[in-house]
Every structure is written in structure tokens, then in C-alpha cells.
Specification:
47% of the residues lie in helices and 9% in strands. It is of the alpha/beta class and 258 residues long. It has one domain (2-250): Rossmann fold, CATH 3.40.50.
């Protein structure tokens, strides 16, 4: 297996990235396997997500990954499913000795646009959506404390999620980038012609580069007042992410089973 996976939040361009990889690597890249029989086998279900984020990489989570990896066909494989990195992707790649045949794409997006997308789609108003697709502040294993964000009302949880996912990206970079190849890209850069060509070269491809149109783009007009409010919140939340994550790792934080 020669595989590509992502470490990213939801609504960061993962569907677009699947299209990009499909066209330029000449493969059928997977975004999210959503058939009924996929959940619990190819796609983590709510129980898997909640186990990992409350109890860590326990036996239940590890058994999911054994089924997941066994379902992956040979040859070049790419999956941009953003839930995977939130339920033990990196830990289980190493546990199953797949790190030498895997490249991880650390995909980021402008935080204001990212948060606006969550609010426009009302993603955090139903806890089951947070359990299946995102993260919830009540989880036992988290890097960023949600408390400072809760004073911002309905905007607080989406902003906390953005920071928690940024922290997890930093966590995996600091802890495992010496074991698994990782490429850091931003949606704003890689979706341009020059950025896409550079990204393709990083992947070791030198052929023509095709830049697909945006995927899953919201049809709602951007809420300028909300964008301004989110920008002001981000200014108030001053986080040195590398330092914060480094201290958490020094203090013994991990996603190992507890």
C-alpha cells in the first residue's frame, strides 16, 4: 500500500483535495466512504470517535483500524476523510507498521472562513454531528481547554474546535513527523495554479497539474458582521500553538489508552 491521508478539520477543503488527488495522481481518491456497511469498517462510527476522544487508542479503536486497513486495496490509495485523524489514524499507522508507505497531508484553511462555514451550516447545534464529524468540548482527551471560548456563546464551540484541530495538527507534527512523512499546505495556497503545482511536486509528481473547481461550497452569502465578530474573537484568543503543544507533550499528554 502507498497511501495518502489527511490531518485536517472538517470544512477545510477535504472534498476538493480528493478531487485534486484523483485527477493528478490518476486514481480514484476517496473523500468519505458513506455506504451503510462502511460505518465501523471503512468509516469510523460515533462509538469509535467517542472511544478515542474519551479513552484514547483503546482495543475497540484498534480493532476498527485493523478492519479499516484490511479494506484498503493495493496500489496507490488516497483518502481525505477528516474524521480519521480524530480517532487514531496516526497512532494506528505506526502500530500496524504502515508509516513507511504513508504520506500525511496537514491541510489548513483560513480560520475565519472555516468557522463561518460551521455557523452557516449549524454544525455544532446537534451533539450527534459533533460526535460523528467534529469534536465536542466535553471529551476527556483534548489539548485546548474549551473554557475561555464558552463566553462567546454560540460562536464559542466552533472557534474552540478550530483551535483544538490546529493543536492536534501541531501535536502530530511535533510527535510523529520524524516517523511519517508530512506535508503542510493551506487550502488558499494549494487551490491556486502555482500552489497546486508546487504541492504536486512535493508529492513527487512532475506531470501536468489540473486544479478542480471548489467542492461543497456554501451557497449562502458570507455574513460580514459575523466574520468581523469571529476576527475579533481570534484576536482576543492569543495562543502560541507550538509552545502550548510542546508543554502538553512534556506534561505527558497523549492519545494512548487510559
Amino acid at each position: 500500500m502507498n497511501a495518502y491521508f489527511t490531518i485536517t478539520a472538517g470544512r477545510t477543503g477535504s472534498a476538493w483535495l480528493a478531487s485534486f488527488l484523483s485527477r493528478n495522481l490518476k486514481i480514484n481518491a476517496v473523500h468519505e466512504p458513506l455506504d451503510i456497511d462502511d460505518f465501523g469498517v471503512r468509516m469510523p462510527d460515533i462509538r469509535t470517535m467517542r472511544n478515542f476522544n474519551n479513552f484514547g487508542n483503546n482495543e475497540f479503536v484498534q480493532e476498527f483500524w485493523k478492519r479499516k486497513f484490511a479494506s484498503i486495496p493495493g496500489g496507490v490509495y488516497a483518502e481525505t476523510n477528516h474524521t480519521l485523524c480524530k480517532c487514531g489514524l496516526v497512532e494506528n499507522l505506526i502500530l500496524n507498521e504502515l508509516e513507511d508507505s504513508t504520506t500525511l497531508i496537514v491541510l489548513r484553511r483560513d480560520l475565519v472562513r472555516q468557522c463561518l462555514s460551521y455557523l452557516a451550516r449549524r454544525e455544532f447545534e446537534n451533539i450527534t454531528l459533533a460526535w460523528q464529524w467534529y469534536l465536542h468540548p466535553s471529551y476527556g482527551k483534548k489539548i485546548v481547554s474549551p473554557e475561555p471560548f464558552m463566553k462567546f456563546g454560540s460562536v464559542g464551540t466552533p472557534v474552540w474546535y478550530c483551535y483544538e484541530m490546529a493543536a492536534r495538527q501541531e501535536y502530530y507534527l511535533q510527535k510523529f513527523s520524524n516517523k511519517i512523512p508530512m506535508i503542510e499546505v493551506s487550502l488558499e495556497d494549494v487551490s491556486t495554479e502555482s500552489g497546486a503545482r508546487d504541492f504536486l511536486r512535493f508529492l513527487g509528481e512532475t506531470g501536468d497539474c489540473e486544479v478542480p473547481a471548489p467542492k461543497n461550497k456554501s451557497k449562502a452569502r458570507p455574513n460580514e458582521k459575523m466574520a468581523e465578530a469571529i476576527t475579533n474573537i481570534l484576536k482576543k484568543v492569543n495562543v502560541n500553538m507550538p509552545e502550548l503543544v510542546e508543554e502538553k507533550i512534556k506534561d505527558g499528554f497523549s492519545f494512548d489508552a487510559t
